[in-house]
Each structure stands twice: as C-alpha cells, then as structure tokens.
Amino acid sequence: MIVLAAVLLLAACAGSGQTQRERDQAMDLWQEMVRWSEYDGLVDMIHPDWLAEHPIRSIELERLRQFRVTEYRVRQVISDSDEQRVERRVQIRLYHVHSARERVIQHREVWRYDETRDRWLLHSGLPDPSET
Q1: Angle at the Cα of 128 (from 122 to 132), degrees rounded to 5?
Q2: Residue 21 CB partners (closer than 8 Å, separation 6+)
C-alpha cells in the first residue's frame, strides 16, 4: 500500500514537472517571438476563446510592425497555488522605426493551462505600444 502511494505521488510530481516545462517553453517562445518582432505568430499562442471575445484587428498588428523590440524583461511572475494560471508583468522597450524614438511599456500576460488542448495559452492580448 505504501509503495503504491509512493508511485502515485512520484507520477503526480512528474506530471507537474512536465506541465511546468511546457509552461516555461510556451513563455520562452512567446518572449522570443516578441523580442524578434515576429508579431503574426503571437496570435497563434492566444487562447481562441479570448480571441473570440477580443478579436485582434490587422491595424493592431500593423501598428506593432512599426516597432522593434530592444528589450523584453520579466519583472514579476505570480503563479496560482494549483499552478494552472500564471501572470507575468513584463517591461518592453520598443524602438519606433519611423521616428527613431524608444518607448518603454509595461505589459501584463495571463497564461493558463488548457487541459482540452493540452498546452499553455495566453489569455491576454498583444503588447500595446500605447501602454505605459
């Protein structure tokens, strides 16, 4: 009986570790795509339900394309106790290619694990250059 409980506990920990690795990989990919200004691909990482309620217009992507990211820095990470939701506060430095000016924005990311899709997806929008 004790052996069975230990095996189940180890399996649960391994599953949790796998979910955390997948979370980290999703967040790293998002960060890399933002950092290299690959804005079109970001939409694929946003949860479809969130997108249905908050559609991303092509003008938003066009506005983002006017900027190059010079820095993406994670400032704060808050995880729920069940580790199925993570909120990240990030600072992004954006260089406007037409005016040669840089601006700094604070952006909030909300990540949730979707058991149906078996992956981590963003439940917040694209970085907004007008954020402060």
Answers
A1: 115
A2: none
Using CA atoms, how far apart are residues 18 and 3, in angstroms rounded to an integer? 22
Distances (CA, A) of 54 to 11, 47, 98, 130: 38, 10, 28, 17
User: What value, to the nearest 5°, has the Cα angle with vertex 44 and ends 128 and 96?
Assistant: 30
Hunting for tokens 């217009």 — which residue is that?
57
Residue 130 neighbours by CB under 8 Å, 6+ apart: 105
68, two tokens = 């190059």
CA pair distance 75, 109, nearest whole angstrom: 11
Would you state the structure tokens that stand for residue 128, as one six-digit string? 């907004």
Instruction: Give the pLDDT confidence of 19-75 residue by residue, as tens digits.
Output: 889 999 999 999 999 999 999 999 999 999 999 999 999 999 999 999 999 999 999
Fold classification of 2-122 is Nuclear Transport Factor 2; Chain: A, (3.10.450)
Instruction: Give the global pTM.
Output: 0.82
Please give the pLDDT value at position 1.
55
